[in-house]
Amino acid sequence: MFSSLFSFSEDSPFYILDWYQRRLDDGIPEHLIGFGDCPFGSTYYFDYSVLTNNEPRIINIGELWEEIAEEGQTAAIGYEPIEVVDNFESFLKSLTSLGDD
Q1: pTM (2 decimals)?
Q2: Residues 52 and 87: beta-carbon distance below 8 Å
Q3: Residue 25: which H helix or E strand, with range?
Q4: Who contacts 84 (Cβ-Cβ below 8 Å, separation ≥6)?
Q5: Is the pLDDT of residue 27 over 60?
Q6: b/e map of 35-64 (b: 16 or more CB within 10 Å)?
Q7: 78 vs 27: CA distance, rounded Å
């Protein structure tokens, strides 16, 4: 289930550049570029490690977190990608509104 795209508005809590920096700080690999989220907290990514016809696949990841007690910070310790579709066009075609059957 897809919720929303990240925002280009600097005032948004989902501002794409802030989100991108947090992703780097949390240790998510650089080949994953997030573009949106779902209501359950996971993120949708372009995965540039797997290309089909020069297009990245779309994956969904719910990050795994580990507490670093002495610093009081969290960091991503791993992830398991769930392939959604082979490309962004297929992703867009798969979207339906909540009222659709």
Answers
A1: 0.73
A2: yes
A3: helix 16-25
A4: 44, 57, 58, 59, 60, 91, 94
A5: yes
A6: bbbeeeebbbbbbeeeeeeeebbbbbbebe
A7: 9
